[in-house]
Amino acid sequence: MTALGLERLPYDPDQVTPGVIGFAVTAAVALVVILLLLDFTRRVRRINDRADIRARIDAEVAERDALERAAAEGQPDAVEEAAARDAGIAEGGPAGPTGSLEAAPQDDAPAGEAEPVERERRGDA
User: Fold this and answer.
1) Residue 95 CB-density burial (10 A; 0-12 exposed, 13-18 middle, 19+ buried)
2) Whether pTM exceeds 0.70
3) 123 or 67, which is more confident?
4) Residue 29: is its pLDDT beyond 80?
5) Distance (Å, rounded) from C-alpha 103 to C-alpha 44?
6) What is the separation of C-alpha 17 from the centre of its chain, rounded to a whole number of angstroms?
7) What is the pLDDT of residue 101?
8) Nearby residues of 79 by Cβ (< 8 Å), 6 or more positions away
9) Which letter does DSSP use for residue 106 in this model?
10) Rounded to whole angstroms, how far apart are CA atoms 111 and 46?
11) Closest of 89, 24, 94 to residue 60, by C-alpha
């Protein structure tokens, strides 16, 4: 068998293991991958948070501009509604994240119990 380059080795090739050095290298690579994933997650969250904040600011600026136009055009109802909504937000009222009362979460109702309007629609009133 020496013609094919296969000689009898002084050890059994099926019993060879990477040893302590192989384990250390594998553990180091795994640790680096975990640290990279944590860093990536942190950066993605930061980008998403900045985008959310930017969207909120844009919405607030657009609402303020609309209110200024409504006040300039002499539409006091729009200005009063916005003031009432802003007062509800400042007092910790039921306004949702966008400031609209329609998007407000209903935390007063017990879990599993339908809202009164929904019960009326179903005929459970």
Assistant:
1) buried
2) no
3) 67
4) yes
5) 27
6) 45
7) 45
8) 67, 70, 71
9) -
10) 33
11) 89
